[in-house]
Structure formats: structure tokens, C-alpha cells
Amino acid sequence: MRLRASAALLLFLSACATSAPSPAERASRNSRIANLQRAAALPWTDGGRCVVREASQSWPVLAERCYRALDHDRIEFHDTAGRCAVASVGAGAVGLGFCVLAAPEIAVGAVIVLGVVVVGVAIKEALDAYELRHAYPEEAGTSRGTKVASREADAQRKPKLKPEPAGQDWQPPVPPESPERERHPECRPVPVRHWGGNDPHNECADKIPNNSFPGWDVLVNGKNFDGLVLMTRTLWDVKTDDFERQTPRSQRFFVRMKLSELRREAKLARDCGYHFVIGVRSAAHKAVLFDADPTLKVVIMDWC
């Protein structure tokens, strides 16, 4: 009896010890996300890969290790605070830039970026992954091996979540205790593997501008969508068939056959508070879809 009681106590203590991160671990994650967000405002020649790799370090260490990955043709450094040695050429200029960049707080006007900054792909993926995981914490378990199944009859498979790099955390945009999410758990987006057998279609879907999960479909409300843009809450269905090569009669027939499913997808997305966009490859396809249903939003995909 004592042995059993001791074992139970040990299990209880072990669970308590691992149930929540320590203050030091939380501070480390917060620092990592602060570094990623700070770096997102700068232009990088490597898509931000160095930043993601070094994000757990202090900002000065990250700045030192990734300084050469900056797009120096688009960035200017000015010692507005007067804390860095004044230099204009050679090694001195590098030292000035690094000094300004590595400051705990960058002074106004100290770093000037020329042109519009597009967040580095690697940085964006890291932040998007954390946004999804912490906006919907119940899905975190699936990334560690829990199987997720679509409710559709034709989806007889058990997809897995995309593995996410550890420690890429920031403040969740939706409180974990949100009653809205509790009432509609089917609306939580879950990345799942692409359907196989149509690589050109999947590659086209992966290139959706600002796609939060390239390489994956997204399961929402029982339906696998081709893409999700989290920042605008937009779900995508991509059409890559050679529509424009068909006769006008065949084009109209094709659209009539697909229209009910497109309307269903639009409703599933709308019911969960998402926009819905259909991506097509030709103006002809867009025109016939518009004639069939002007309420559908159709975009010509010039990237595929």
C-alpha cells in the first residue's frame, strides 16, 4: 500500500513539475519572439534564416551574428544618440552600423530602411506558426503526434500537423479562454498534408501571397482548403485546370458541375468568420464563374 501511495505521489509531483514552463523558460520565449518581431522590420538577404536560428540569443548577439545577412544596399545607420564611434568608410562603417543596430533600444532615425520591407520568409513562418499554435492551443498536441481526421467522407486519412520549431512564441492574438472558440472548435484551422498526386496544383497553392502554411492544406469546418492567409483570415480554393482550352459550352458545363461545391466551401468559411477566395489561372475562368455566381470572389493567379 505504501509503495503504491509513494508511486502515486511521485507521479503527481512529476506532473506538477512539467505542467507549466518556469519563469526563466517563459522569459526566454518572450525574448525570442521580441527578437523576431524586431528583426521583421529589417530587410534580410537570406529571408531571415539567420535571425530564426539565433533568435534565442540576446539581441546584441543576434545582431553580431546576422549583421552580414542584412541587405546593406537598402539600409542606413545614423548615430543619432551619439553613443557610437563616428566613422564613414571601411571597417569603421561596419562598426558604426553594428553599434547602432545592437543598441538595446534603437533611437528614432537611427536605422533608415529604403523601400517597403517584406517580412523575411523564415521569420514570417516562425511567427505564423506560433500565432496558430497559441491562438488555438488545443491543436498543439497534434503537432506532437496526435492524429487529426477530416469529417468528410472522402477524407479517409489521418493527417498530421506540420512540425513547428521549438520556442517560437509571441503574445497570442486570441485569449486561450475565448468562449467563441469553445463553441466552435471545428473553426480552428489545422494544417494537414497536401493531397498527393497533383504536384503542380500543390505548388501553385503554396505560392498564394502571404500563405501562412506553404506546403500544407488547412482543415477548417470539416473541409480541406488549399491555403490560409491568417493576417486577413482568408481561405483559398485553387483551380489549376486548363479551363481556357475548353469550348465555351464545356466551360459553362464545368462551372455548373463545380458551383454547388464552391458555394458550400464559401459557406463553411463564412460560418467560421473567414473570407473565401477562388484562385484561377485565366480571365475566361473568372468571367464564367462571375456569370454563374457574382457573389463568389475570384482572383486570377499570375504566379502559376
From TrEMBL:
Keywords, alphabetical: Signal
Domain DUF6310 positions: 180-304
Pfam family membership, one: DUF6310
Position of the signal peptide: 1-20
Keyword Signal listed: yes
InterPro entries assigned: DUF6310
Region called Disordered, residue ranges: 141-189
Biased composition range(s): Basic and acidic residues: 149-163, 178-187
Name of the protein this chain belongs to: DUF6310 domain-containing protein
